[in-house]
Design brief:
Blueprint lengths: L1 H26 L5 H13 L4 E4 L5 E4 L12 E3 L5 E4 L8 H13 L5 H10 L16 H28 L6 E7 L4 E4 L4 E10 L3 E6 L2 E2 L9 E6 L2 E6 L8 E9 L2 E12 L26 E5 L5 E4 L4 E10 L8 E6 L2 E2 L6 E5 L3 E6 L8 E9 L2 E12 L13 E6 L5 E7 L9 E10 L6 E2 L9 E5 L6 E10 L2 E2 L9 E2 L3 H8 L27 E8 L3 E7 L10 E8 L6 E2 L10 E5 L6 E10 L2 E2 L9 E2 L13 E7 L2 E6 L8 E10 L5 E3 L9 E4 L7 E10 L2 E2 L9 E2 L11 E8 L4 E6 L11 E10 L2 E2 L3 E2 L9 E4 L7 E10 L2 E2 L9 E2 L12 E6 L6 E6 L11 E8 L8 E2 L9 E4 L7 E10 L2 E5 L3 E5 L10 E4 L5 E6 L9 E5 L2 E2 L6 E6 L2 E6 L8 E7 L6 E6 L1 H15 L5 E9 L5 E7 ...
Parallel strand pairs: 6-13, 15-22, 97-104
Antiparallel strand pairs: 1-2, 3-4, 5-7, 7-11, 8-9, 8-12, 10-11, 12-13, 14-16, 16-20, 17-18, 17-21, 19-20, 21-22, 23-24, 24-27, 25-26, 25-28, 28-29, 28-30, 31-32, 32-35, 33-34, 33-36, 36-37, 36-38, 39-40, 40-43, 41-42, 41-44, 44-45, 44-46, 47-48, 48-52, 49-50, 49-51, 49-53, 53-54, 53-55, 56-57, ...
Helix pairs in contact: 1-5
Length: 1474
């Protein structure tokens, strides 16, 4: 009985194992280690055996069907025992193991979903105790239980198959965030941790992103820590700083989908007062990493910059980081309008370690804005900012608008994208009518216009894109004058679904986003898609309407497309819009709608299975603009800022939607020309307009702009003068002690470097006592401001220490106090040397010079001051760099310093001297930059028309309250008896009343209330004498002549004397004088004075012997006089007389037939030699005769055919010249009026001159040297128009003359000059020169036979050589075979063909394309490798046909074809009878 029970249980065990093994292999075809371990555990748990003792002592081995402790089910069941979910078991293990399990599971993409449930359903813990109980069963009970087990197995299998068909994915679901990460705000230096919990099956993978950039925690382990435990995911950010302020995304992904959530982290820093912006300087802090505190200074800053579209602009600053740490560099970042710039083809940044450079390539208006350099160190950061303005490029057509700007693409989908842009600042001569949008596929250069009619809105939907392709866009503006230049192109955008685009942008290490493979049949295939939802109108304008909707829930996996339908309000007539092609994107733009009409819209989905039901219709939409133009901005207020800028502020436009910004325009008062101040709209209501002209009155206005267009302009501002605003001055500096006594001290200081745009009106001195290092309160020393930079502090206590500070005052107020002086003791000095000079300052600063001035010391010492010394050093030099500018003391209190280096900075001090010695130096002045201020003018000395001498000084940067102060030897001029000063606006004139030696000296002029604008002029004795001479000339003027008297010969030998006056009045009179005798108009002389041109003329018909002498024109014009003369005497007169007679003889000659151009030669481009001359004054009866070697050329002579007459040009066409054409050619003209002749000597030198010209034409007609490969070698050649044997042609190889040989030969064939290189080798590579004689030095044509040219030529030579060898050795039939053979039946036919080929060819005979074999009928022979024969012993009609002898070797093959015709003798006889 027990044996049967044991056997039955064993069979049951085997059956269950087979069933479970089948289910495992059916539901899982996997390589997962987790799955393999699970299945192994399951299998082992069912195959455990135990050995127990029965009551009878028998040992029975059984398998227990029930475990001692049941495991909880991993399936979540509802009340109907339906599986509704899966409970994830909680387990603990090493994090790395969990990560490995997760990664291993992700590698499996074809895992059956039901196996997960089945695996966990039968999985049991391996360490569970396995105990079995033995019970006795009857055979009937055993059979019944076995049957029940079998039935249970069948039921389970049927239930599983049913669930598989009905709901295969009931256990899998996409990721879902159960606990979302929470945004946090923390202080700098703290640690922040973001947590989230994600549900989903299969288990999702989670990745963290910062501002859409994947966080690599392994690469930045010191900053980030990422953990994932039991579906709890966290991101830890350590030691937070400002740069950690960002949006952090958690992205979860599995095979069913993906989900993401965002949390914002804001990092704040400890500070007092107002919160600073991201680019504001941060206090430097200690860096524990390097053990120092970094201090950053930005110098050599870039100023406000102006560029023009298309140009390249560079910005740069010098950055000093102290202390210097080896291998540590700061982080240098450039910003535009507070947005960090990234390197691109338009933006290049460079950091050399000391200087930061930013280069903007091919400027566009998008580049305009506030540029900021930010230098980040471990201790903080420093910034510097300045504005860059970009002006529009010059338009090719006047009046057209400028290009739009900021072209961007939005809402890109599979076949749809929205393009936006900003309106330009300048509309042109008429308002903008609209815009054209162009597109171009990336990789192509063809631009296609997207819209036929211009669109008014700065927003346009572009449809009809090809999915998966990338596009760029540009925009052009249109007005009445034409179309603008295109804008800068947009960034490339891909036409694809946004989710696909996000996956393309993801990093390779981002969560898996590949394609999911389905192992089972997709139940959604063949399903007609459902209706879309949420159909809304997203945009509506006069030009178009944009619809948007959500895809249907039921759509299958093949994707859906859409049809759009419209219906006019009040009707039921639905009309399909896109009948030709359904769209792929859930967006669509409708054009050509009637403005003012109301429409409703709906959408249908379609796929390969059909068209679905329509969506719910939208509400009625009236076609028209939803976005209105912005309202005009409020009142505009303009205030002074600098000498070239004005601050403009205005009230914001009210109730404006989608504002792009504002454009500011300015206009000079008195004109109607408005100019843009910015070419990129600004969003704030305050703007600094730069680049204005100093001292000019401007008015300003503002207009707002949005996508709909421009607002009306604001009211004009009040007029404002461009000049620097007055502000409180800077602080005085270097408070020093000059003299001390028992109860007083004399103090001095330096004036502020910045006077705030107004003169310093005075100074206030404060003091406080110092006792044992403890300072008291500050007290005012003087209640009335002192005007000098020194002060005598009285009523002090002896032997008491004091601190002093000084404040400056101008019309804007009192400045901040200077730094306190050192502790100064009030006690009497015993010094005998003078004190330090005071009031040291500089004027007339130029690139290489300046003037330094000072005042007397407050204390002279024991004797008066008798001289001064000036010392200088470069600002960067140490204390040992001081050097004296002169050896001997100077008496005056000024000195001009020369020899400076342009752009260098210097410091100065002055020392006073008396009889006791040299005193202490003054306070250090500087650093002073040796650089000429832009726009600097110098004093100009002028002498007016009345002879008045004056000095003029101009200043274009006058400030309010500025005055011109004239000085002599740097002392203000108070005596007006020598000099009168007249000032008008920005110009001052100092007029010398009576110039004399008393006026010698240095005259200088300084403009007050400026940054030291001044100039000087040194009047020396020599200069005074020169000015007095000029003054005398102006008082007693001389009539200026533009041209002195000249003479020229005219026709008939007439003589013309003439001159031209430069400046005269209508009252000017002329006297004509010859040898001091006034001559008048008559038979011998004729005169004229053209007062419109100032030309004075006198004519004589001829020159006689008595006309030798001096000719003079005397002019009188009021008090001005002028004289000009021409002397004609001696050899010069006689030469002129001969020329006059020759001109008269020439005139007589030209009264009859004559030669205008004498006989000469020319060579045509065809190398024909022509003898040509031009004749004049010819009549029909004029006889023209040609001669050669004094023999007349008759009409019947051969040379007569060469003579041509074309109007007044005679031509003798020699053609291709030879030595036979040499000779003396002559042409004679003759009629009743006279005769003339012309001769050309075409011998010796004349012949050689013609040949040299011919050589030049031939040489210039030569083409560039070309290369030609042949089977023998390489040929270099050049073609000429014509060649003669007398032309010398030479060839050079590597500048060495080539000698003719068997291998290298040169020559001429027809009109081709060639150099043949037979069997070329590597030595023949190099430069070849053809030197062809051109009548002078020779003309050279160069060809470089190396590199690619040599390779191609040599390769072609080898190919041709091989082809020639193949052609020579090719197998062929060279004779012996007829075309047709007619033979009588019964006769014997024997044909032999001559064969050639190397190697010896193979031979075969064919008949009717069938190869013949040698047998009793056919005898085939091939003898000596040359003779192939065929013999047919007795032919019959069957032998008629087409035969061929085929020969073949490795170089080719050939067939010798012939026809054999066999006839009967009877047939021939019958034919003859007929």
């Amino acid at each position: 009985m027990s044996g049967s029970v044991h056997q039955s249980q064993k069979q049951q065990l085997q059956q269950l194992e087979r069933q479970h093994q089948f289910e495992s292999s059916y539901y899982l075809g996997t390589k997962s280690s987790v799955s393999q371990r699970s299945y192994a555990t399951h299998k082992s748990s069912h195959s455990l055996k135990t050995s127990v003792k029965t009551e009878k002592g028998q040992e029975t081995v059984k398998l227990s069907s029930v475990a001692k402790k049941a495991k909880h089910s991993y399936l979540a069941m509802d009340t109907d025992n339906e599986v509704i979910g899966y409970v994830v078991p909680v387990f603990r293990t090493n994090h790395d193991v969990v990560r490995g399990l997760s990664e291993a599971q992700e590698e499996v993409r074809e895992e059956g979903v039901h196996y997960v449930a089945m695996r966990n359903l039968f999985l049991r813990e391996s360490r569970e105790a396995m105990e079995f109980r033995v019970e006795k069963k009857t055979r009937t009970t055993h059979v019944r239980e076995s049957a029940e087990h079998v039935e249970l197995g069948k039921t389970m299998e049927e239930w599983t198959e049913f669930r598989k068909k009905m709901n295969p994915d009931s256990l899998t679901h996409p990721p879902e965030f159960i606990v979302r990460p929470r945004g946090q705000t923390v202080w700098e230096g703290k640690t922040v941790k973001l947590h989230c919990t994600v549900a989903g099956w299969p288990k999702p993978r989670v990745a963290w992103y910062k501002n859409n950039v994947l966080i690599d925690a392994k690469a930045h382990h010191e900053k980030y820590t990422i953990e994932s435990n039991y579906n709890m995911h966290s991101l830890e950010i350590k030691n937070c700083d400002f740069f950690d302020t960002a949006q952090y995304h958690a992205s979860a992904l599995n095979m069913k989908g993906e989900s993401s959530i965002v949390a914002t982290v804001v990092v704040k820093r400890f500070q007092d007062g107002e919160e600073k912006g991201p680019l504001d300087p941060k206090p430097h802090g200690f860096c524990p990493e390097h053990g120092v505190t970094f201090e950053t200074a930005i110098i050599d800053n870039f100023e406000v910059a102006f560029g023009r579209e298309g140009e390249t602009l560079s910005l740069g600053c010098t950055v000093i980081v102290y202390p210097t740490i080896k291998k540590y560099q700061p982080d240098v970042v450039w910003y535009r309008d507070s947005v960090a710039l990234k390197p691109s083809k338009w933006v290049h940044s460079h950091w050399s370690g000391e200087r930061a450079m930013l280069t903007l390539v091919h400027l566009n208006k998008e580049d305009e804005g506030m540029y900021t350099l930010r230098v980040n160190t471990k201790s903080g950061f420093e910034t510097y900012s300045s504005y860059v303005f970009v002006q529009d490029a010059e338009e090719e057509v006047e009046g057209v608008p400028v290009a739009p700007l900021d072209v961007h693409c939005h809402d890109a989908n599979k076949d749809y994208v929205v393009v936006t842009w900003k309106h330009p600042a300048v509309e042109g001569s008429s308002p903008i009518l609209g815009y054209y949008v162009d597109r171009c596929e990336v990789g192509n250069h063809h631009w296609a216009q997207c819209n036929d009619a211009p669109v008014k809105y700065a927003r346009f939907p572009v449809t009809g894109l090809v999915e998966g392709r990338s596009y760029i866009f540009r925009v052009r503006a249109l007005n009445g004058a034409g179309v603008s230049r295109p804008s800068r192109v947009s960034e490339a955008v891909i036409a694809m679904d946004p989710s696909d685009r996000a996956r393309l942008r993801a990093d390779p290490s981002a969560p898996w986003t590949g394609m999911i493979k389905f192992t089972e049949e997709d139940p959604t295939v063949g399903v007609v898609p459902g209706e879309p939802s949420d159909v809304v109108v997203t945009e509506a304008t006069k030009s178009y309407v944009v619809l948007g909707w959500k895809p249907p829930v039921q759509r299958g996996h093949e994707g859906v497309m859409y049809y759009i339908e419209k219906c006019i309000s009040g009707t039921d007539n639905w009309q399909r819009v896109n009948t030709g092609m359904p769209v792929k994107s859930p967006r669509f733009a409708l054009f050509d709608l009637a403005e003012g009409k109301a429409y409703s819209f709906r959408v249908r989905c379609c796929n390969s299975s059909g068209v679905g039901e329509p969506s719910a219709a939208t509400s009625d939409i009236t076609v028209g603009d939803k976005l209105e133009l912005p309202s005009a901005p409020g009142s505009v207020v303009a205030t002074r800022n600098t000498d070239t800028s004005v601050v403009v502020s205005w009230g914001a436009s009210k109730d404006v939607k989608h504002l792009m910004g504002y454009y500011i325009e300015c206009c000079v008062v008195g004109s109607d020309v408005w100019m843009p101040c910015n070419n990129k709209p600004v969003e704030m209501t305050r703007f600094v307009c730069h680049g204005l002209s100093t001292g000019v009155n401007y008015v300003f206005k503002v207009k707002a702009v949005n996508a709909a267009g421009y607002s009306h302009s604001s009211p004009d501002s009040e007029a404002v003068v461009v000049k620097a605003a007055i502000s409180i001055s800077g602080k005085p500096s270097h408070v020093t002690l000059q003299e001390a006594a028992k109860d007083y001290m004399v103090l001095s200081w330096n004036a502020p470097a910045d006077d705030g745009g107004a003169d310093i009106r005075g100074y206030f001195v404060d003091y406080r006592t110092v006792k044992s290092g403890v300072t008291g309160k500050w007290h005012e020393m003087n209640h009335q401001a002192v005007t000098t930079t020194s002060y005598k502090a009285e009523n002090l206590k002896e032997n008491v220490f004091y601190h002093f500070q000084v404040r400056a005052m101008n019309m804007a107020g009192v400045s901040k106090p200077s730094l306190p002086s050192h502790s100064l003791e009030c006690k009497e000095w015993t010094l005998t040397v003078p004190g330090a000079p005071r009031g040291v300052h500089v004027l007339e600063v130029r690139d290489t010079s300046l003037v330094i001035l000072w005042e007397l010391p407050a204390f002279d010492g024991r004797s008066p001051v008798n001289g001064y010394y000036v010392d200088v050093k470069e600002a960067s030099a140490g204390e040992d760099g001081w050097k004296a500018l002169h050896e001997k003391a100077i008496k005056v209190k000024y000195m001009k310093v020369t020899g400076l280096k342009a752009g260098a900075s210097y410091v100065f001090h002055v020392r006073a001297q008396n009889l006791a010695g040299v005193g202490k130096p003054s306070a250090v002045l500087g650093p002073v930059l040796a650089q000429t201020r832009p726009g600097t003018h110098e004093i100009v000395v002028d002498v007016d028309d009345d002879g008045v001498i004056s000095m003029i000084f101009e200043c274009s940067d006058m400030a309010e309250g500025s005055e011109f102060v004239w000085s002599k030897n740097y002392k203000a001029i108070t005596d007006t008896s020598r000099l009168t000063v007249v000032t008008e606006k920005g110009k001052s004139r100092a007029i010398f009343n009576d110039p004399s030696l008393e006026d010698l000296g240095i005259f200088s002029c300084e403009v007050t209330n400026t940054d030291g604008i001044s100039s000087s002029y040194t009047l020396t004795e020599e200069g005074l004498k020169r000015l007095l001479d000029i003054s005398h000339e102006h008082k007693f003027p001389v009539i200026p002549f533009k041209t002195e008297m000249s003479m020229e010969l005219l026709e008939k030998g007439r003589v013309r004397f003439w001159t031209q006056v430069e400046k005269f009045s209508s009252a000017c009179q002329v006297e004509y004088v010859f040898n001091d005798v006034i001559v008048t108009e008559g038979e011998k002389y004729s005169m004229s004075f053209d007062k419109t041109t100032g030309i004075i003329e006198m004519f004589m018909d001829s020159l006689e012997v008595t006309d030798e002498g001096t000719f003079t024109f005397n002019l009188v014009d009021g008090k001005a006089k002028g004289t000009t003369s021409l002397v004609l005497i001696g050899e010069e007169f006689r030469e002129l007389q001969k020329k006059s007679e020759f001109e008269r003889a020439e005139w007589v000659r030209k009264q009859g037939p004559h030669f205008v151009e004498y006989l000469d030669f020319t060579v045509t481009s065809e190398c024909n030699v022509l003898l040509k001359c031009t004749i004049g004054n010819i009549k029909p009866e004029t006889k023209i005769t040609w001669y050669k070697d004094k023999l007349e050329i008759e009409e019947d002579d051969e040379d007569a055919k060469k003579i041509e007459k074309n109007d007044v040009v005679l031509t003798f066409n020699i053609g291709k010249i030879s030595k036979q054409d040499a000779g003396i050619y002559e042409v004679r003209l003759k009629d009743e009026r006279g005769k003339d002749k012309s001769t050309f000597n075409l011998t010796d030198e004349g012949y050689q001159a013609v040949m040299n010209e011919l050589f030049r034409v031939i040489a210039n007609s030569s083409t560039e040297v070309s290369v030609l490969s042949t089977e023998h070698g390489i040929i270099l050649y050049s073609n000429v128009t014509y060649y003669t044997e007398e032309q010398r042609v030479g060839w050079l190889h590597k500048d060495a003359k080539i000698a003719s040989s068997d291998r290298v030969q040169s020559g001429v064939t027809g009109e081709q000059l060639w150099l043949k290189i037979n069997e070329p080798t590597e030595k023949d590579k190099g430069k070849y020169t053809m030197d062809i004689f051109d009548g002078k030095d020779g003309l050279k044509r160069v060809f470089d036979l190396s590199g690619k040219a040599w390779e191609e030529a040599f390769e072609e030579f080898q190919r041709l050589k091989a082809a020639a060898i193949a052609e020579r050795n090719r197998a062929r039939v060279i004779g012996g075979l007829p075309d047709v053979v007619t033979i009588q039946e019964g006769k014997s036919l024997n044909l032999t063909g001559n064969v050639w080929g190397d190697p010896t060819p193979e031979v075969c005979w064919v008949k009717n394309d069938k190869e013949l074999q040698s047998d009793d009928r056919y005898t085939l022979k091939f003898e000596h490798g040359k003779f192939a024969s065929i013999t047919i012993a007795a032919v019959s009609t069957a032998d008629s046909g087409k035969y061929a002898l085929l020969v073949k070797n490795k170089y080719g093959k050939e067939a010798g074809k012939f026809t054999v015709s066999v006839y009967f003798p009877e047939d021939e006889e019958s034919k003859e009878k007929e």
